[in-house]
Specification:
By secondary structure, the chain is of the alpha+beta class. 29% of the residues lie in helices and 24% in strands. It is globular, with a radius of gyration of 35 Å.
Length: 721
């Protein structure tokens, strides 16, 4: 009897001739027991058995497929062996999902054939689709599947197997704005010592000290007490350094070995921006394998290395072969070419970045340099800094452990994730609110006796200038950073509307993420009536007065301050800071991606009032009343700015030192923000450092720092939450 379903024999004739051989069996009294099945279509018809196969195949359930095999097939291969073969095929093909459908069934007596469409979605070779014919036979009162391995995928049979040739692009480089490499794939040379080959230890130690920069005793300690014939790695150096000192590397006892790896230039330029690579983290293993990674690759785990992984690594491809028992190629089952990796070009200026890192040194703090007219990041550093090369080179375990164990957390990006009160830098916002919302004139006069009793004598507050400023205008109060004036302004604003100041701060971009791409950042907070109400608390006049001078619960990142000052400098436009300039093209299919300056807001202040703020900020550095006047004497380039000394929590803890400004004041090009934790007054530390940054940008000799600005050992203090 013949029975046709769906398209019947016509469909079968059109299917590719990839079929299992039918086998005539003699009844066998013993065979492996049928494993218990989850509910599936009945197996008393060929359609039911074929449907059960399709369901099991789609579920990737080898036990269920094995249970459908004829008794003879199950005698020939164990359930464990079949499952292992199945798992091997799935893993080799990098299968992610499976789908299957039954197209048609043709029955002739106790034999039948089922036309099936099988599909795997794989990580390396994309979608694999095949139309196949599965043979069935009727035995012992039910229908069974003939074949075994070819039921996993046509052609596998009993002895054939898959082999995947992986196509993996080389990791692309990260460059600065002038095409200078920040991170690159290149040759790394591991310099080692074989003690028994040493002829002149003094000469060897001298050579290695020069090549690696390590102390001779530290070098000797590495190979001391090691077996004389063993090779002991001392340090990794770049290929360029190896070429430069090639004559020294021939010193008897030195054995240098090459390998390919990630190298970070100049000992790490902008490491908090560039990030670093590491082997695929265990908790991320499955996610990376789903993208075609083997799992032992080095991938980006921080900064642009992590953000740009899809570009820098490209997309892995592969060629899936069907091999015979002897390893001969029977066919190419599937192929997908790799997508080339693509370099990332940043806005960072590498020479300036290195100078800025040197200026900050090992201080806990941050320096941000932006283009005033675009928001492009020219330099961004967090201190203490670190050399990412020690994180990727196994032979530098001691240096790596020192970085990881450092209580000052060098891996923490204080420029974008550190949250701090800004101190008097916030007075820029307060002055804007006074001019715009309170109707105060820049020449409005206040009196500063050195203290303020506006909240009552029991709550007396003080100006930084103990003897007071006397009579002072609102404009000069910003230049001279008169606290008493701004206490009065804060109270006046509160009486008009308690939310004025916090709303103005948010309009200046404070207390929110800037949206910079590729670099993790924190939002921080600008406290105000709304945020307090959300916490079930009230907002009082004393809170506004504290906020008016940048204290209280204010928590801001240095990058947010830099964006705010850039808006003041450029005429009122808030730009999204950006560090990625473009992603290189990879052929016509993957065109270049360009990141252009992006305006995201406008300061809510008139041009006239903004000019008052700009003029007052110039007074900070150019007029005797200015808090940083003495720090910029003799600098030909006019700088407008604002100092800040933000009280930090703790007993006898020095304030955070701030300076935020731009240059040239009359035609702004760059914004410079310097913040040093627990370092002292803004005019003492941050302002002289900011001058050096301006000098570095314009190629001038750096003015020596005053003694009070020199780095001094400081107690470990965790960044503010």
């Amino acid at each position: 009897m013949r029975r046709y379903l769906a398209l019947g024999l016509l469909v079968l004739m059109l299917l590719p001739a990839c079929r299992s051989e039918s086998v005539t069996l003699t009844p066998s009294p013993t065979f492996p027991p049928l494993p218990s099945l989850t509910p599936t279509p009945t197996t008393d018809t060929p359609e039911g058995t074929a449907a059960a196969f399709v369901t099991a195949w789609e579920r990737r359930d080898p036990a269920a497929i094995y249970a459908l095999l004829t008794p003879a097939r199950r005698l020939a291969v164990s359930a464990e062996a079949f499952a292992a073969r199945y798992r091997s095929a799935i893993a080799t093909a990098t299968v992610l999902t499976a789908t299957a459908s039954l197209q048609a069934v043709l029955q002739e007596g106790e034999q039948a054939q089922a036309a099936c469409r099988l599909s795997w979605q794989t990580a390396l070779v994309g979608e694999m689709v095949t139309d196949t014919i599965v043979s069935l036979s009727f035995q012992h009162g039910r229908w069974w599947l003939d074949g075994a391995g070819d039921l996993i995928w046509p052609g596998l049979g009993e002895e054939n197997y898959f082999y995947m040739e992986r196509l993996t692009p080389a990791r692309a480089n990260i460059y600065d704005r002038n095409n200078l490499a920040l991170a690159a794939e290149g040759t790394i040379v591991t310099v080692g010592v074989v003690p028994q080959r040493i002829q002149d230890e003094a000469a060897l130690l001298s050579a290695l000290s020069l090549v690696t920069g390590m102390d001779a005793e530290a070098i000797r300690a590495r190979y001391a007490n090691r077996p004389a014939a063993w090779w002991t790695p001392i340090a990794d150096i770049s290929g360029d350094v190896a070429v430069r000192y090639s004559n020294l590397l021939t010193t008897p006892g030195i054995d240098a070995r090459e390998k390919e790896g990630r190298t970070y230039m100049l000992g790490g330029a902008a490491p908090h921006v560039v990030g670093w690579v590491a082997q695929v983290p265990a908790e991320e293993l499955e996610r990376y394998r789903a993208q075609g990674y083997r799992g032992d690759e080095w991938v980006g785990v921080a900064g642009l290395e992590a953000w740009g992984e899809p570009y820098l690594a490209g997309r892995h491809g592969g060629i899936l072969y069907l091999l015979g028992p002897a390893g001969n190629i029977l066919s190419v089952v599937a192929r997908r070419d790799a997508v080339p990796s693509r370099a990332i070009y940043t806005t960072i200026d590498r020479p300036l970045q290195r100078q800025v890192q040197d200026i900050l040194g090992d201080r806990r703090g941050a320096i941000v340099v932006l283009e005033a007219q675009t928001g492009a990041v020219l330099a961004l550093t967090s201190g203490p800094s670190f050399d990412p090369n020690v994180l990727v080179n196994p032979s530098w375990s001691e240096a790596r452990n020192a970085v990881l164990a450092n209580p000052n957390r060098p891996l923490f990006n204080r420029a974008t994730q550190g949250l701090y009160p800004t101190g008097s830098v916030f007075k820029i916002v307060t002055l804007a609110a006074a001019l715009e919302r309170a109707g105060m004139a820049p020449d409005m006069t206040f009196h500063c006796p050195g203290y303020w009793d506006g909240l009552g004598i029991n709550y007396r507050k003080f100006c930084w200038k103990e003897e007071g400023h006397g009579d002072i205008t609102l404009r000069d109060a910003l230049a001279g950073s008169c606290n008493v004036t701004f206490y009065n302004v804060g109270m006046a604003l509160h009486n008009i509307d308690p939310a004025i100041l916090s709303d103005m701060a948010q309009a200046f971009g404070l207390g929110m993420r800037t949206g910079i791409v590729g670099v993790p950042e924190e939002a921080g907070q600008v406290p105000g009536p709304a945020s307090r109400a959300a916490q079930g608390q009230g907002w009082y006049v004393g809170d506004t007065v504290n906020l008016a001078i940048g204290q209280g619960d204010l928590r801001i990142t240095p990058l947010q301050v830099a964006r705010m000052v850039a808006a003041v400098a450029n005429g009122g436009t808030l730009y999204r800071p950006y560090v990625v300039a473009r992603i290189a093209a990879a052929g016509e299919a993957y065109p270049e991606i360009v990141y252009a300056p992006e305006a995201v807001g406008t300061l809510p202040i008139s041009a006239e009032n903004l000019a008052v703020i700009q003029d007052a900020m110039l007074g900070v550095t150019r007029e005797p009343i200015g808090t940083a006047h003495h720090r910029f004497i003799g600098l030909a380039i006019p700088v407008a700015g604002k100092t800040g000394s933000a009280e930090a929590p703790g007993i006898n803890v020095r304030p955070h030192s701030w300076f935020a400004g731009y240059a040239p004041a009359n035609a702004p090009e760059i914004v410079v923000v310097v913040m040093v934790e627990n370092a002292g007054e803004g005019s003492e530390v941050a302002a002289p450092m900011a001058r050096q940054v301006v000098e570095a940008y314009y190629g001038l000799a750096l003015t020596p720092l005053p003694p009070e600005a020199e780095p001094t050992p400081t107690p470990t203090v965790e960044p503010l939450p």
